[in-house]
Design a protein that fits this description.
204 residues; Rossmann fold
Amino acid sequence: MMKNDTARFAAARPDFAAIAAWIPNGATVLDLGCGDGSLLRYLKETRAVRGYGVEISDLDILSCIANGVNVIQNDLESGLADFESNSFDYVMLSQTLQATRHTEPLIQEMLRVGREGIVSFPNFGYWKNRVNVLAGNMPVSRDLPYQWYDTPNIHLCTLHDFEEFCRGHHVAVLERRVMTGNSEVKVLPNLLGSTAVYRFQRGI
């Protein structure tokens, strides 16, 4: 990957750099709902990771191959039974959590297959989203680019929602990073942050 490609990926998806910062060189990773393979390509070039993507779309499978990414065609909703327990250092779900139907079993499967999990998702509690809802409309933005009638997002949540889910399902949050664009948000993150990235492991 050329340096301008790395910068382009990081600018288009600020969560890429946040995820990469948590992953050591040479780690094994599984990227669920990997899309065109951009995140895996980014991590391969910046962190020398080894691993696979899982994707169902035929067009995205072709894009993964073009990006030099190992990819398996499979539906996440059917589970991760093809993967052995503890077979990866990290299992990632980047900007896909909100589009999954069976969120609870998928998170548990991530932590069976991987030592740690990483998710990123749009924060529905972001103030601009709240203003749109108060005005009587579903929000449409860079982080939520779909109209209500064609959106794949079925489980939108806020930071508080996700953290409450973790507490109730024996998931231990290790680190959190909240961003708006390329800037990290540390004050009132559930109100001022548009994107959340979490690193977690099995809780007690």
